Amino acid sequence: MVKTDKIRYSNVFMAFFRSGMLGFGGGPAVIPLLQKEVVERYHWMNDDEFGDTIALSNTMPGPIATKLAGYIGYKIGGLWGLLVALAASVIPTVVLMVLLLGVLQSYKDVPWVQNMSQTVVPVVAVMLGVLTWNFVQQSQKALGWGVAIFLIVISIIVMEVLGVHPAILIAALIAVVLVPFIKRVVSK
Amino acid sequence: MIYWQIFIAFFIPGILGYGGGPASIPLVEEEVVERYGWMSTQEFGEVLALGNALPGPIATKMAGYIGYMEGGLLGAFIGLFGTIAPSLILMLGLMAILFKYKDSAEVKNISKVVKPVIAVLIGFMTLQFVIESQSALGNIQTVAIMAISYLMLERMKVHPAAVIALALAYGAVTGI
Known about the structure:
Chain B: It is found in: Cell membrane. Chain B: Belongs to the chromate ion transporter (CHR) (TC 2.A.51) family. The structure holds 2 protein chains of 2 kinds. By secondary structure, chain A is mainly α. Helix content of chain A is 82%, strand content 0%. Chain A has helices spanning 6-22, 31-41, 47-58, 64-106, 111-119, 121-161, 166-187. Chain B has one domain (2-175). The longest helix of chain B is centred in the last third of the chain and has 51 residues, at 105-155. Chains A and B meet through helix 1, helix 3, helix 4, helix 5 and helix 6 of A and helix 1, helix 2, helix 3, helix 4 and helix 5 of B.
């Protein structure tokens, strides 16, 4: 572990603050910015280590930006490094969000503010539509059209027709993949 | 107990959303709108729109804001904790094992098989927002705004924050 001092923590904060505040499009958009800070500016990791970290965090569910912040922060500064990196990447944007939506909420009975929250819905629909297509393409790339379409049809039937909670379907799929793996590891 | 509900509402998307924060959006909607009824689909859309207009990870912006609305500062903290902690603790705890097997086919397959499920969830959410928009704005405005924002976002590569600001401005002007 790298030697830690006060200056390092402010560096950790700035690295994650900058990449959080400049990355639009959710956590995955933050990755290239983080690479610039972690590898090129502060040399906390080399390119290979950073690539390994991405691969590692992709094996786990949940938001990617916070997994990276937590892991890299921990590696360079222990528990405090972890907390500083997480706070820097999460808190500023949450505060912005609460302030902005708070203002909008307090005027929500004003007709033109109401109208604002309606005209933004189709834009969100387009963004989600594009995101849907992204995930379809990712599925196709990872599994091929046959398996991808099969799993899409199964998901539609199970979740939308039968009304099963998505958590149950996802947990079942993970179990199907993971059981042979665990068996193999255990028997080794 | 509201704090427990907030934790569950963000723990489930955090532990099941393979593919980063955006993948957890429909899972959050499932909890926040469908299960706990904290907000309507339109309100969720508003949160999502502003979340997309602001920088940084989307999952934590939603967790922080919705947690704050339902349970104040402590609620925000619990929402964030539920989103961040489980997957991070798993990752740090299993680091040695994961590092050994991160290139193994099965481990890679986990995130692969979940992707079609996420695609379906976000797809149906898209549909829900289109229907929502039709009933609030009518067919013509819905199609027009969707077409224009698609062109701006995907063809002209205009910044999402600018497109959302434009839609808000249009709503303000036509609402006066």
